[in-house]
Amino acid sequence: MLARMLESLHAVGVRKVVVVVGHCADQVRALAASSPAGLSVECVHNPAYQQGSVLSLLTARDVILREPTLIMDADVVFPREFLRRLVDSPASNALLIDRGFADTGEEVKIYTERGQVIALGKKVMPKAWDLVGEGIGFFKCGAAAGPELVRLLEQVSEESRGLCEYEDALHLIVSRHPVAAVDVTGLPWTEVDFVEDLRRADTEVFPKIAHLESL
Superfamily for 2-214? Predict the structure, then answer.
């Protein structure tokens, strides 16, 4: 999954990647060392990786403060078209959204109004919205929003003692900076949390992605 992610980033023109490592860090570093030619991959270690994802993203705060950044969950099997749409979006800040989802209560839902994200989270629900979809876990953060995002990550981390998810900070930033919703409804993808998710990715989702990318 990580190898495909690095290949996809390289294919859309990304040349520098930072991977936050924790569990099986040596294996991840070894894979990163064999990344595509022309792609620079740096691994930074989060010793508290078993806590909330907010701490992992804070481990890479220097990158977010320095330049525009693509923030990506590493447990997603997806087509390259996801990254093309995100990178090509004219918006400085953007989130991918899939409107064709089944709401089980475990999805990070993204709510939009006139194409702009107004709220996101598993339990969040605004008073009114135009569209709602599942978040993919990919966020394009522009240079202007970067310092604010880091500040909000630090805030929610302190309030939760490092036990919250970074989406809590994203929910706050959409009221401070415009964040566009980039639609990927209909394209094949899946999040992999458990062994059965990996089996489904192998047997159902990846074949669809391979067919799509062979056209």
Answer: Spore Coat Polysaccharide Biosynthesis Protein SpsA; Chain A (3.90.550.10)
